[in-house]
User: What shape does this take?
Amino acid sequence: MGFEDIFGGDSNQWMFLIPLVIIIMWSLFFRRRKAEGTEVEIASSLFFEISENLRIVEGFSTQKRPKKFKTGSWQRNSEKVVFLEASLQEDLADAFNLAESFNQSIDLAKKQKSNIYLSGIDVHKLEGPLTKSKEGLQEWLKTNMQQAGPQAGRPGCMGMGGGLGR
Assistant: This one.
């Protein structure tokens, strides 16, 4: 049973198409995330990350293998949040610094293969700063999305308006 029997047709055609399909699939899986460009995109990214972290806090004690807290958006955008109120910037910094500290403890526990390192983690200390940050970002987004109107964000299909492009 040859290659032609399985796929039919000329094997030269398939020898060209298979690598092309592999390259396309590889580029889809390994493409880099586009950085947030506008203030609304930055605030939205932080908001979604904080919401995810609140979910992690809620389920932290019931998980056999705890999940690490999300900090990527803060790492990318911490220098770009000057458009937010100073108190909100402080809340965000507190929340993400605590999250990073907890992530280090989680990494240590995984490295040592021992949950004893997790017993000292009081993730509920993170709830206050996360909740304040979420409320502040929610208010900021509500105000600024209304001012920007429906055409804000990256262009959507065929150059039409359309939100955040995600």
